[in-house]
Amino acid sequence: MAISDKITQLNNDLLAAYDKIDEKGGTVPADKNSNNLAAAIATIEGGGGEII
Question: The pTM is what?
Answer without folding.
Answer: 0.82
